[in-house]
Each structure stands twice: as structure tokens, then as C-alpha cells.
């Protein structure tokens, strides 16, 4: 034992005179670091209750619960995350994944709660809803810039170059490859917000999962559960699901429509047959369906599966309705539509073509001979522009024009065409005219942003050099030496006092006149109910030109069901398909009296 | 010091005492799991003759949370909040090994800056872990004050972790694909300030512990590990290096950026508790030097994370891998097997404390005075959580 080793330890006595290393809580408080993972806060206005936080939480400490004052609506489940701090480990995965960015953390880490000593549920709280003293503090841990665990940009869809497509009816969208589809499907967080927004409530997350797992047969089964027109919808659906997609909040939504198309593009008709393996026994009851459009045929499909004998009466020579006669081939090739229709027909559905009810066959006849009737006749009566010269030759309706093109009749539109209107029919008419080599001008009463047409249709029309004249109210059409002199009054937008959408008001004297070979009017259309006998028409109830039905699409006459554009306000294919599905269930229940 | 009459004691042969327990001459004594001298939740079942241990059994199970099994039911991204809990004082080694194993199996390359940040994190956590050990070792030998200083200084390092990662103990910072955030501004200056504080502490602690005749009396000759025992028991880390074995995963099998850093393997030859004490003190200084090197060499800009597939559906192809890193206790290993599903098929953690606290301690503890058993455990530097994954 050396003396040095005996004495040396006393050297550190000097530390006794130094400042203590500890702090004197509670007199001194120590705030958490700037990025400390402290207590949760949630911006409940921004949150849509998608449940991604619940899904990724490895401790299962998050539950989504209903909250007072928050309603379920399109794109919002109406639920908000509730966190159990008895389970939470503050790993912040919930913050990392939160697709809206509403869930965050403060750097607060002390929480005192008064209580009677019982272990109650005070440690379970709903951030943003329950009042906590850290609610208004600055944020602690934030998802760092450059750090995203989800992919927020879409896989780009290959679309035909503008120059190539503006004179071609070949389908312009090329569809995803397997690799692209799987990558796109991988972006999905499977929250299911889209399911509630889809009119047909398709099992979107499930079929996207089937794509990821490369099980297209399962995907087809899922599609046909709610939609027998998936091949067509995969091309032309108005895809409201994508507007509700949770990824839309901080990036781009999943291309749900293209994924559906990918499934249908990659299964043959035989594979559809074998994967669905629809089996049913006939129950002997007969149903008549008027109109072989998406509404009528989807009702026919689901009724046939329930064992009914279905006869569809179609006024035109082919089935498909607006999908065939309204939508141009560059968006929906007829072969693809036929693939959907052929499968429905393979279940034994009969279609009688060229039979217009009310003209070739009486409605009463059907009423007597069939157990139930479903009509989904679409909107076929174009609105009038109510301008002078509307009846001149060379002024045609958009529907008639698109119809002629489908039938293979040369529409003879000449070199310059004006299309009046701003809806999807107007866009289809304009772009189809372009493909016949005409210079096209779209004339619309309101602003570009007010157009009811899908944004992508407007953008693609602009790319194809369709000219847009907006805030223009048509006044008259005059014919001179085979040319049509089309005048419109330029307008300004006037805000409405009651908060309604701004209205175009003509600027006095500001009139533009241009010459065209053809003027296509596409300002909307109404249903034509002249086929109904008077006593039935009186019995049914109408509002704003649409038939009123109950939830099962039953009209005021218990034997008659209706659907499609003559019933629903949205007037698109997917709503018609849903109407057909609902009506099939409704008819079955009515006939079986359950 | 005390010349005992050893006739009353049972004969000890190769670490095993030959005795008749039911002769009522011996006493069973439980050391732990609540005993402050037992670092962590484990217990030693001692059989003593007088105040000398003649048999020792290590009992674990107080801490078992089944992490390896839990991970089999968690998605890959959900495992990183679990792995850090396998070793409380030094969680980052687990985080690194798990993330690196997943990256290897999924074929992901992480950015340069993330590699440097990970290296820094590992070295910082080694320093923090050694400071914890100073507390344990000094406290077990009656130097409570030194333990208090060391734990306080460990908290300074934890402050840095809090700033960098968002949490003090379980950092949950390294994820498959990189790390979860960049440095805050001015971090390097605060890091340097803490390193200087630690250097001062190490200097003082060395004077108290190395130049201390009481400690020398107790540690010199305590728990001698001979070079022959190293392979027999699978001894790694400072415990092996204290017996002259030049073993260090950072040198033998360089990972991250260790091959770009300048350091030597620290060894001592005596193989007793005091030699291990010296090894660890030198390694603390080495860690400080490495942290300084890393900070000066690492890129200032660049990405710290690379995008991985959607964590909710991430599937990793069939494969298996074993990765190892040098923790303060020695070689730390992760075996990960995947079966092509969205969950790990099997994760096995090789914590060095398994051999050190069970088989080695049971061998070395025989013949040791009861008062020294806590010091012996401290000198083996064991952390029970990694025995019970």
C-alpha cells in the first residue's frame, strides 16, 4: 500500500465546493428539448379520422372514437384518435404516418391530475378534444423535413402525346404495368375513407391489397361484388373516391380508377368467369328492365344472380347506354365495354334490342306480364338554348352528335365548330369534333373554374388546342350562305347576396359574333318519361325532373323500381350502377316479402 | 489480510465446491433482485460458508417481456420501438443492429450522413453506458459519491440524446432506412461542452478509483479471467480485453464508419477486476476521442433517411442474417430471419451479459467474499435485460 494511493482520493474533496449538478424541482423546471417527444396534440379540424395512427401503433394504444360535434361526411370518418397513455411508448410512429399532419407532439412531459386515488381512465384522452394544459404549447417532435414514411406522389400514367391523340380515336390512356400498379397499390394506407365516398361502396382497400399480393382473381371477385362494370368504370369513373383519399391532403391521391382498370385489363373474360363462378338456381320470377345502360344491366346482373329471369328492353341496337352512345371511344373503347356486357349476358340475361317502350311495346304489357319492372332510361332530352336560330340546320345537340359518331354516321360538322356548355358532354363533343379535324371553340356562360366537367377533361381539351370562350351568354344564331353567325353577349360575374354561386350578367352592348360551320349545344339534358302511361305517370312522384324513390329504389308504385340518371342527382355511371344494385336487392326483398 | 483456517471450508475444485447442503453447516442467501448491489433485476442465490460464497446460481426472469416473440407479430417498422428496450442503458446498439439487419435483408442502402450519425450515436451511447457502469462499480465498492457524479454526467449525455433524437433513454431514432432526424443547430458545440465535462469527471474518477489503495485491495485478484477461459466461456468485450485478448468488433469486423476512425484496441493483461476497471476507463477516453473524430469527419449536409416501402405493407424476401456490433459489454449480435411476409420470422438477440452474468459469474463467484460479489458483478458489467429478451 503506497502512501500516494492512500492520499490521492482525498484530492477530489474539492468537488464538495462545486455547484450541485442537480436542479431544485419544483423551484426550477426544465423544459423538454425542442424536438422532445412529449404529449400528443391533434388538430381535430384537420384530422379526418383515417385511422392510420391506430393502424401503425405497435402498442395498440390508439382507438378511433366518435366525438361530439364532428359528423361523418365524405372524406371524414367522424372519428378521432383517443390515446391510452397506459400503453403509449411515445415512439411517434403515429406522428410520422399521419397523412393529414394533424397529429403532433408537444415537448411537455409532466401531467398531474387530481383524483381520489382510484385507477380510473384519466390517462386515456382524446387529443384536441379533451382540454389539456399543453394544448396550446408549441410543438415538440415534428416530422422532420425530408422524412416521410409514406409516398405522396402518384405513379405517372402514360397518356398518348397530344399531337398523336388529337386526331385519333385510339384509347389515349395506356394503363399501368404490373410493376407500376404494384407500386401505386403500395402507397395505400387502407384507411377506407374512399369506400364511404364511392356511390357503390366498392371494397377499394381490399382490391388494392389484392393487387399488392398479385391475386387478380380475388380482385375480380371483390370488384364484381358491387360493380359489374368495372372495366368501364376503371376508365371513365368520376372517381369521387380519389377526391376523398387521405393522401390528397398532403400529396396526391391513389389512382384508384387506374388500379381498377389494371385489374380488369389483366384478366381475360375466361378468367373473370372462372374466378366469379356465379352459380344460381332460377326461381321462376320474371323481371323487366327498361334501358340497357349501366343502371339497367347492373340490376340485371344482380337479379340474374338471385335467380330471376331478366329481360332488358333497349331502344337502340346495342347495349351500354351512355357508356356506348355518350362516351367517345378514345376514353372508353367499345371492346372494353363489351367485355363487361358480355359477362352479364353470359348469366342468361336477355336483351331485346330496338324495342322502344311506349312505341314498339306498351308499358302496360310489361306491367301485366312481369313480376317487377326496373327502368333506368337515362337523360335523353337535350335542354333548349332558348336563342333565336336554334332550329337551323347545322345546330345539333351534343347527345345526337355523339350518338351519330358511335353509330358510324358521318356527323358532317365542317371545319369550325362551336360547342355550347361546360359539362362532360360538352367536353366529349368538343374533343370528338377535334378528332374530326375541326377547329373547336367551347362557349360557356360562367368561368373556367365553374365548369361542371371533370378537371382532367378540361385540361386535356386545352392540351388538344380546344379554344375556351368563357363568360359568354349565347344570344342568337343567323345563317348566311351556309355559314352560321353565332353571337354571344360577354358577361361579368356578379356575386350573389345569399352566398350562392356567382351569376353571369350580360355586359350591355358587348356582343361578339363569329362564324361556324356547326354549333353543338350541350348544356344539359332531361329525362323523357313519355313512355309511361298517364295513370302511372300520375302515380309516380317527380322532383326537378327526377323520379323520387326510396332507399331500395322503389317508386310510389310498389311494382316499379327506377334508377340511374333519372333518379340520382349526380348522374354518373357509378351512381347508376349502385342504383341497379340497390334496386336488385329491393326487388328481391319486395318479391320475397322480407 | 486475514489468514483463515481453511479446513472448515469445503474444497473448491475448478470453480465448484464439494459440499453437502443438508449438513446444516451452510446458509442460503438471496442477493437481489432488490439488492442495490445487483445491477438490474436479477438475483443471485448464494450458498455461503461463513462469509465466503461456496455456490452461486444466477436467477433471471424478473424482467422477461418476450421481445423476440413480440417482434414476430409486429410489422418491420413497428419493431424499432421494441428493440431499444432490450438494453436500457445502451439502447442504440439494438436499434442499429435491428435496422441494419432489416436493411441488409431488404437490400436498402442508407445515405452517407445517416451512417455517420449512427456511428456518432453508437459512440455516444457507449460513453453513456460506461458512465452508468462507473456508477455501478463505484457504488458497489462503497464509493457512492463517485457513482452520483457519474450518473449526473450520464444525464448530460442523455440531454444531448434528447435534443438529437427526441427522447432521453429509449431514443427510437434509428429506423430501417436511416435515422429519424438531422442534427439540431449548434448541437456540436453543446456536445463538445459535455465531452469536456466528462473528461474532467473521468480524470477525477480515475484518481479516486485507480489510485485508491482500498479499491486496489478489493479488486486486484478478484474474479480472475485467464486467457484459457475466454473461448471456453465465450467472453467478449472489456472482460476479454482485460485478460489480454485483442478482441473488438469495431476493429475485427468494422461496421458503419469505424474503419475510417483512428483508435487502438485497449488491453490489459492481469485479467482481474482491477484490469477490467483500467480497460473501461481507457475506453471511455477512447470514446470521447472517437466522438470528436466523427464530428469533424462527418458530412455537414445530405440526406439522413432513404424512403422505404409503405410501412403498413412492407414485406421482406426470405433471408437470414447475423450482424454484430461492439457494445460496452462486448460483441452484441442480432440474428434476423424473414420469410417473405410482413413480419420478422425470428429475431434472436445475443447479449454479451448472457455468458457474463450466468455461466461466468457462477464460476467466478465461488470463493468470493459476500461483500465483494456486488463488486465482481460490477467488474463484469452485466445488464440483465439482454439476458431476458
The CATH class name of the domain at 281-380 and 528-592 in chain A reads Alpha Beta
Please outline the major beta sheet of chain B.
3 strands, antiparallel
- Largest Cβ-defined interface: A-B, 46 and 43 residues
Cα radius of gyration of chain B in angstroms: 22 Å
Let me know the number of strands of chain A: 22
What do the pLDDT scores of chain A average to? 90
Distance between the termini of chain A: 101 Å
The parts of chain A where pLDDT drops under 50 for at least 5 residues are: none
What portion of the residues of chain B fall into strands of 2 or more residues?
A: 5-15%
On the 0-100 scale, what is the average pLDDT of chain B? 91
Question: Care to count the β-strands of chain B?
Answer: 10
Question: Per CATH, which architecture of the largest domain in chain B?
Answer: Orthogonal Bundle
Q: Could you say what the CATH topology of the domain at 281-380 and 528-592 in chain A is called?
A: FAD/NAD(P)-binding domain
Briefly, what is this?
The complex is a heterodimer of chains A (594) and B (389). Chain A has 594 residues and is an alpha/beta fold. Helices cover 29% and strands 18% of the residues of chain A.
Verbal overview:
The complex is a heterodimer of chains A (594) and B (389). With 594 residues, chain A is an alpha/beta fold. Among the domains of chain A are: 171-275, Orthogonal Bundle (Fumarate Reductase Iron-sulfur Protein, Chain B, domain 2); 281-380 and 528-592, FAD/NAD(P)-binding domain (3-Layer(bba) Sandwich), CATH 3.50.50.60; 384-523, FAD/NAD(P)-binding domain (3-Layer(bba) Sandwich). Chain A has 21 helices and 22 strands. In chain A, helix 8 (216-226) packs across helix 12. The longest helix of chain A is centred in the C-terminal third of the chain and has 20 residues, at 573-592. Chain B is 43% helix and 14% strand. Chain B has two domains: 6-59, no CATH class; 67-386, Cytochrome-c3 Hydrogenase, chain B. In chain B, strand 9 and strand 10 form a beta hairpin. In chain B, the strands form four sheets. Chain B has a three-stranded antiparallel sheet with strand order 3-4-5. Chain B has a three-stranded antiparallel sheet with strand order 8-9-10. Chain B starts with 10 loop residues before the first strand and ends in a 9-residue tail after the last helix. Chain B is of the alpha+beta class and 389 residues long. The chains are: A alpha/beta (594), B alpha+beta (389).
